[in-house]
Structures are given as structure tokens and as C-alpha cells.
Design brief:
This protein is 6% helix and 38% strand. With 66 residues, it is mainly beta. The chain has one domain. Strands 1, 2, 3, 4 and 5 form a five-stranded antiparallel sheet that branches. Strand 1 and strand 2 form a beta hairpin. It starts with a strand and ends with a strand. The structure holds zinc ion (ZN). The site of zinc ion has 7 residues, from loops.
Length: 66
């Protein structure tokens, strides 16, 4: 995955696992939103990758193709 930088601190954000307690990770269903996420190249589902800033603990989620 790409290196992500914290928008506030400018340091590299660390990948963190995203869990909902039951499945192996969170994902978003993109099939119904073709107009928006279809442009990003996602077909029906996109996994969410979490990243956390080691300085300020900001957490961001990025949609990534499975
Ligand atoms: Zn930060």
C-alpha cells in the first residue's frame, strides 16, 4: 500500500488493522454508488485500510480494492 502522511503532523502514518469484532476487516459496498466510487475503479467491494498517526493518533480509513 501507499505511504500515507498525517495531514497535521506530516509524519508517515502506520497501517493498523480495522476490525468490527466479527469479520476479518471492514469493507464498503460500492456497487450501488457507481457514479461516485465507480470512478475510482472499485467494482463492488472495497476493503478499508486504517492508518494511524504515531504523533497525534489521528486515524484515517482508506478504501482499497480487494
Ligand atoms: Zn498526526
Amino acid at each position: 500500500m501507499k505511504q500515507r502522511r498525517c495531514p497535521d503532523c506530516g509524519v508517515t502514518m502506520e497501517p493498523v488493522p480495522v476490525r468490527d469484532g466479527e469479520s476479518m476487516g471492514l469493507s464498503i459496498a460500492t456497487g450501488e454508488r457507481e457514479g461516485l466510487l465507480g470512478k475510482l475503479g472499485f467494482k463492488n467491494r472495497a476493503k478499508l485500510q486504517g492508518v494511524c498517526c504515531p504523533e497525534c493518533q489521528l486515524v484515517r480509513l482508506y478504501a482499497e480494492e480487494e
